[in-house]
Amino acid sequence: SSESGGRRGALIVLEGCDKAGKSTQCRLLLEALKDAGKPCHLFAFPDRNTEIGKVIDQYLKCTKNLSDEAIHLLFSTNRWELVPTIRELLLNGESVVLDRYAFSGVAFSAAKGTMDLEWCMGPDVGLPQPDLVFFLNLTKEAASKRDDFGRERYEKTEFQEKVKSIFMKIQDPAYWKVIDADRSKEEVQKELFQLSLETIEKSKNKPILKLWD
Ligand code: 2DT
Ligand code: MG
Fold first, then answer.
1. Are 41 and 26 in contact, with CB atoms under 8 Å apart?
2. Does the structure's ipTM exceed the value 0.90?
3. Which domain of life is it from (predicted)?
4. Of 104, 115, 121, 160, which is best to mutate to test ligand 1, by the most ligand atoms within 8 angstroms of its C-beta?
5. In angstroms, rounded to a whole number, what is the distance separating the alpha carbons of residues 84 and 93?
6. By the 8 A CB rule, do 10 and 203 touch?
7. Ligand nearest 22 Cα, by number?
8. Among 121, 48, 43, which Cα is nearest to 88's?
9. Fewer CB within 10 Å, N or C, the chain?
10. How large is the average pLDDT for residues 143-169?
11. Which residues line ligand 1 (CB under 6 A)?
């Protein structure tokens, strides 16, 4: 279908701090949408499989060091390299679910304290704007009851708290929905599924907007 007359799919993003259950919820959401007859695709950022993604993977595993600015730009490039695919799917009437997006890009980089918020947002300006962002919100208390962090860069409680405060600063009520992630996986899943169905209906005839434009 064409950009002007077509019925497009919705762009739905899951964001949140580590351990909030994003990846599990992404999988469950995709299954539920498919069962409901909604064509959809799942992508995760960073996409560690591209050439740029492989460098990002090394950085996260601490086998490679890069300046804060350089890794920030690579994370952004890693999104831009998938934009043609995402746009094509959306315009084809298929919904796209993303496990992290530019909000993680800004929150994790700005939390380092070496780059200001506006600078961090710059490279992602103009990306397809999500129709809905679920922010999976986990309280400190609930987080401490879950498994310990892994060994990747950023997987530290104190840093995660800074990240969360920046997520809160950059939220846009036009598409941002805070989800109580302290609840059971099933309860969270039900809410995400219902809200996603509504958003898919509402987005059908809307243009794809540009993020932070
Ligand atoms: P996963 O554990 O979800 O693979 O993320 N990150 C992510 C950034 O610093 N900038 C970004 O743009 C993105 C998408 C968050 C790996 C880590 O990478 C961080 C956690
Ligand atoms: Mg991780």
1. no
2. yes
3. Eukaryota
4. 104
5. 15
6. yes
7. 1
8. 43
9. C
10. 91
11. 45-46, 60, 75, 100, 104-105, 108, 154
Q: What is the pLDDT of residue 32?
A: 98
pLDDT-derived band of residue 1, with 50, 70 and 90 as boundaries? very low
Q: How do strand 132-137 and strand 11-16 relate by DSSP bridges?
A: parallel
Place of tokens 């007359």: 5
Q: Which residue has the higher pLDDT, 143 or 198?
A: 198
> Ligand 1: which of 82, 98, 108 to mutate, most ligand atoms within 8 Å of CB?
108
Alpha helix (H) ranges present in the chain? 22-35, 51-60, 68-80, 83-91, 102-110, 117-121, 140-145, 157-170, 185-203
> Is residue 29 within 8 Å of residue 193, measured between CB atoms?
yes
pLDDT digits (tens, 9 = 90+) for 16-43: 988 899 999 999 999 999 999 999 999 9
Contact 39, 95 (CB under 8 A): yes
